[in-house]
Every structure is written in structure tokens, then in C-alpha cells.
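Input record, target 12 of the design panel.
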């Protein structure tokens, strides 16, 4: 038995958590794209220390994922005899992903889903239409729509996912029996060299025997860029 055809669906949402769907039905593509580009990038700053032969890459940021693909809208009736108005198809899609929504003061958030495993949540970057076939009166019969989206993650979700453990973030640490400051720095930051700054910040004159100390504040430590 052959599997049933799953068509890509594009749904608009009025909230950044993708829980409140935009009024109306999702846009169902007439023909699935034959190529999808899902792009992931990491950005670094090149830094070269004095008297070294080459630069090293210091992490800067991880930009949002990008998704690019093309869909074909066919109004000849061959694909779907009930969907022959290309202009209406484009207007419907545009209303979901491009048009300014006055209730949220921006265009909708967008979810692209193809089957159960392919899901991308983001916002539209570009919407390019190429008309490739026309009726004798000049009305379009077929169009190719190039779409580009940028992944969107709500700020609170980004903060939760980051689970920041770097030296530029404040940490309140519970001290366990037998632990030393270098060990705690290595545990928190994977680098024990900051123990002097932590000792100074907490007014400590010792860093090996921490008996009697229940909690320590590990302050933000900004390294020169």
C-alpha cells in the first residue's frame, strides 16, 4: 500500500509561542517543493594574539536558522480543478505570511509543516513571485513563489535554551563540603583561573578550605575582547 500524499502547509500565528492560530485555514501548497534549503550558521570574531602565526575564532553568536524554498501555484485545473484562481491563491498566502496584522502590530508568525517530522517556526523575510504562464486576457495561470523565512524563538525560550554558564553571567553557588574555589570555577565555567576574582568579590582570604561557607556569588567576569 502506497503512503498518502502529504502536502506542505503554511499557518499564520498571532503570538510568538505559536499557540494562537491566525483566522482562516492554513495555506496548503498545491505542489510540494522539490528543493528546500535549511541554513544554519555560527559567527565568530577572528582574534590574533601578539607574536602568533594565525588568528583564532572567538564565538560571537548563532544567528537564526534560515529556510528557503519555492512553491508552484498552478491555475490550469490540472493539479486541482477547484483552485484555478492564481491571484486569489497568492492573496490568500500573502494574507497569512506577509500582510501587516493590526492586532499584533506586525505580520504574523509562521509555521511551515510538511508531514509530522518537518516543522519550521519563523517569520517571513522575502516573498518573490514569478508569473510563468498567462491566459489570453493576461491573467496569470501559473506562478512560482520563492519564500525565505527566518527562525523565530520567543525571548524567554531563548534564555531557557541557552542555559548560560559563561563567565559573564552571575551565578549563586551552593558550596559542598571539601570543595575549593578553583574546583567550583572549573565546575561552573570549565576554567579554574577565575578563582581569585571570585575570592575578592566574596571577601574571602582563603580558597581551598571553604568550610563554614554555604553559598558564594560567582560574579560576571568580562574578558577583554
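The sequence produced for target 12 reads:
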Amino acid at each position: 500500500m502506497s503512503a498518502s500524499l502529504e502536502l506542505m502547509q503554511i499557518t499564520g500565528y498571532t503570538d510568538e509561542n505559536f499557540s494562537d492560530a491566525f483566522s482562516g485555514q492554513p495555506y496548503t501548497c498545491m505542489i510540494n517543493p522539490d528543493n528546500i534549503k535549511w541554513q544554519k550558521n555560527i559567527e565568530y570574531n577572528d582574534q590574533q594574539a601578539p607574536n602568533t602565526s594565525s588568528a583564532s575564532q572567538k564565538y560571537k553568536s548563532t544567528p537564526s536558522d534560515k529556510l528557503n524554498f519555492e512553491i508552484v501555484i498552478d491555475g490550469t485545473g490540472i493539479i486541482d480543478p477547484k483552485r484555478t484562481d492564481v491571484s486569489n491563491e497568492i492573496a490568500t498566502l500573502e494574507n497569512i505570511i506577509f500582510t501587516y496584522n493590526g492586532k499584533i502590530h506586525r505580520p504574523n508568525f509562521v509555521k511551515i509543516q510538511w508531514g509530522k517530522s518537518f516543522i519550521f517556526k519563523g517569520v517571513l523575510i522575502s516573498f518573490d513571485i514569478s508569473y510563468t504562464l498567462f491566459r489570453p486576457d493576461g491573467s496569470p495561470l501559473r506562478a512560482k513563489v520563492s519564500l525565505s523565512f527566518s527562525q523565530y524563538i520567543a525571548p524567554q525560550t531563548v534564555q531557557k535554551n541557552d542555559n548560560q554558564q559563561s563567565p559573564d553571567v552571575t551565578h549563586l553557588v551552593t558550596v559542598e563540603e571539601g570543595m575549593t574555589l578553583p574546583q567550583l570555577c572549573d565546575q561552573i565555567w570549565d576554567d579554574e583561573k577565575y578563582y581569585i576574582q571570585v575570592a575578592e568579590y566574596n571577601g574571602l582570604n582563603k580558597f581551598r578550605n571553604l568550610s563554614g561557607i554555604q553559598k558564594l556569588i560567582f560574579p560576571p567576569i568580562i574578558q577583554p575582547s
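The chain has a mean pLDDT of 85.
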